[in-house]
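Help wanted!
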Amino acid sequence: MASVSVCQYHSGGFSFENCKRNALLEADINKLGFSSPAARKTGTTICGVVYKDGVVLGADTRATEGMVVADKNCSKIHYISPNIYCCGAGTAADTEMTTQIISSNLELHSLSTGRLPRVTTANRMLKQMLFRYQGYIGAALVLGGVDCNGPHLYSIYPHGSTDKLPYVTMGSGSLAAMAVFEDRYRPNMEEEEAKRLVRDAIAAGIFNDLGSGSNIDLCVITKGNVDYLRPHDMANKKGVRTGSYRYKHGTTGVLTKAVTPLNLEVVEESVQTMDTS
Amino acid sequence: IVSTFNNYNDLYPDWTQTEVSTGTSIMAVEFEGGVVIGADSRTTTGAYIANRVTDKLTPIHERIFCCRSGSAADTQAIADAVTYQLGFHSIELDEAPLVQTAASLFRDMCYRYREELMAGIIVAGWDPRRGGQVYTVPVGGMMTRQPVSVGGSGSSYIYGYVDSNYRAGMSKEECLKFTAEALTLAMERDGSSGGVVRLAVISEQGVERQVILGNQLPKFSTV
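Answered by r_m:
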């Protein structure tokens, strides 16, 4: 029995066929004086801190495409599992898809083990995937959560290296945020102090880094509870215009006026119901 | 090789695109009854210190450690793989694995993938058959046993100090002092090394770890 295969078998791995085409296009475009479209990045300030009862994750909400803000209020704190969340900096698509893939695999793993997933498991899965792609997946992540062994916080770099620390920052605004942490971090802080510290660290990134901006999102994870505060602080509310730019009626003098009514008759009417069963 | 798409403007500073490296100064010394290993604690992305309290002394098995230098991602991935392989081997054997076995596993991986990897590793530990041993596996994948071994970018500055101050038959305390002083000198001169000095002693009794903080480091004459 002959079987017809419609799809071509994937040889696996990346396909670099379009690289030559892209190089030629880029050369042509540059000759005309334009620049090629840039991948959307989350310029970003993201950070996390371990405090007495758990972890607090923070992120700004600006997504940039080159020098233009593509999204003024994007969500950078991604769900991994009920007790684990992950902030993402770098290429927006990469962070989004990577966290979704690991979230899916972790749910299956959790069903298989019959236990709440551990942060170190998510860390292993993320670092092994990113290492496999040798840095081509531009995802720099701050992974935090609370499991049976307490609160944990990891920073994960695009090439697949990870660091387990009590406080971490990532993204283009990470230096500004780290300055705040290095000044005011203490072990075993209370929740309000930890939230204030993370809020101030992200604010430092928002106001001192061009790649970060807009609002501050927070995610407080404790044993058995998650507070996803979006937005926690709208640091860049759009101002109200003080004047009106509308012209009053009568500003432009009317010289002539001609009205032509359009008489439309209904010729045919038919209704097609969609089968929603 | 970094994608050329990402060079735009000053919006994303250089260190967001450079790979993370453990600049590093690492060292291991054999003594009668075990080994002393030591490392600095700095991980850099370009000119930014990504982690100033890194632990570069990674346990591979109960009494076998490795000191990592080079690319952070590469060495972490290799160490995880070897830890798995050695653990499996040890269960099959039903006895403690040899330090030489661990070193061979590192060598096999570092040599096979030498074009893709950037990893300089020192494997050190204690096993019942041959006591304390230090094996060095530098970039390229060679493996050789040495009584004392230094590695990482900071090692260049202390070859003279190590060659002139090492004596065979030093005691555990002398080895600890020797290692701490050598690493301090390396950290002083190498920009990619710094932070704290992490030390560990591996012997038949087990592993004792210690940390020497910045203000407790041995002091040398300031020129």
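OP: Thanks! One thing I noticed: Chain A has a mean pLDDT of 90.
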